[in-house]
Fold each of these.
Amino acid sequence: MQVSRYAPSGSVVTRVFAHDADFANNARLSFLILPGDDDDGASALFDLDRDLGAVSVAADLRQAPRDRYEVVTRCSLLTCFQLLNLTGVKFLKFD
């Protein structure tokens, strides 16, 4: 996906989706950005809303040293029986 270098801080650029078939607190999911394998700085440039999964701009992208970033996300479901982790990856390219 492409993101404008001029997108202001706070702009939502994409959203991570996950679903659990349970209900109430048993279906509550939490999202976060994980550092990449080479920790390329994506976690400093983007924020992820823990409850909604919305990925937004967190810094001035015009100052980013690279044109392409990998954002690795984790979705966790915490119940009394288990902790489930689902991971997704988004590639963001600046235009």
Note: The chain has a mean pLDDT of 79.
Amino acid sequence: MKMPNRNFFIQTPNGGEPKLLTVPEITRDEHNTREIEALAREQTSRIPFTPFDPMELEQKWAANRARVDNSLDKKILTHYHDYPFMSAKDRARNLGIHHEKLVSESSKLKQGGLLKVETVSLGVGRPRISAILTPDGLEYIGKKSLPGKGGLLHKFLVEQVRSTLKDPSSAFIECENCDLVVVTGKEKVAYEVETKPGQQLIDNLVRDLLVSGYAKVIVVVRNQSDQKAAKSKILEGGLPEHLHSKIEVKTIKEILEA
């Protein structure tokens, strides 16, 4: 019986570069495992052994896993902060992880007090499950919460409107009642973001046009369905006829694409 050379790479923990172990060719009538073992022991005896503590090695592996987990935690939290209304499947695809992994990690972040689940209706399809960062979550990734009042969707839409108004000749002024006020020259224009147009819309318009005296009010809604509802509410709301020309109702898409 003839056995050809066998080559193996052997590396011990903290032992430096891998060492090549060669079991030489053996020509015998019968296979003798003891002789092979003896030859292997002779080869391995030439490789210096570095003692190591298994517990210390496990601690290093655990620390490395923790660094990987922390990196993923921050990546997921940052994504929720920057894209609060993305679907779970799109979010997982965007992050480059499996959908089940995203669900599992998000659950851990929620249990850790870094995320809070919120149901958001975008006006089309079923309500979407989103998540907002808690104060601890924001501090963890070094971010700030969206300014303003209302829920997550309301704050997000206000911020989107604000991002489009970059005319250097205009300026924002503080407004306790309405969402945004833009001043151009002597003209003041108020922006009211309405996620669910109702009686409050009429109250806001009366306050903005008659009490505060703004030249125009732009009502920003989620979609065309809300746009139709808002216009209907304005017509039925009993506003003086001369105020109707000072009101515009636009979808957020129209604002962003203007």
Note: DSSP finds nine helices and eleven strands in the chain.
Amino acid sequence: MLYGVIVALPSVGLRLIYAIIILVHDIKGSSSDFPKSLAAMVCMSVVPEMITVVILVIVGLNTRNISKAYARIATAEEQPLGQVYNPKPRDYNGT
């Protein structure tokens, strides 16, 4: 899960940088229309969010059963090597 967060961080950083550019643009009252254009907003704000969500959903789906896998490994490690599970033998009467 941590690797998924590390992979998603650059897209979150890109969106943060774009938000800072918009903030500075509004404070200075610059005449440039690039930061406020629809294309820039979609490319710098919406797309990184979508990339982040997709990455984290994929990582979440891949790690959803990890506790069950670790439980199976732990129970397998508790038995000594070479020992096979032998249930209690039954007699022919069914007891």
Note: The chain has one domain: 2-77.
Amino acid sequence: MEKGFQSSSKNRFRLANQKKIKANTSSYYSRKKRKIFFRELWINRINSATKLYGLNFSKFLNFCKKSKIQLNRKVLAQLIIYESKNFFEIFELYLI
């Protein structure tokens, strides 16, 4: 009936069906939570990097929009981690 379940829940239809429904709702919830977690992580990384220059995250995003920098939070956070020198050069060019 259902692969991956243990004991009688893999052989009995009603039990297997209930477990399948429960697993689907849990996976939906977990996918949403993962997106929220990564968004918070990116915001924290950007905020900590911009605090070196005395700005907070919201002011930094406002300056980015005014300067027409169209990088999303994920890309900005990756720039901070992997290309921090380039990020701070961009930061100084456009914002300061």
Note: The domain at 7-95 is CATH 1.10.1900.20 (c-terminal domain of poly(a) binding protein).
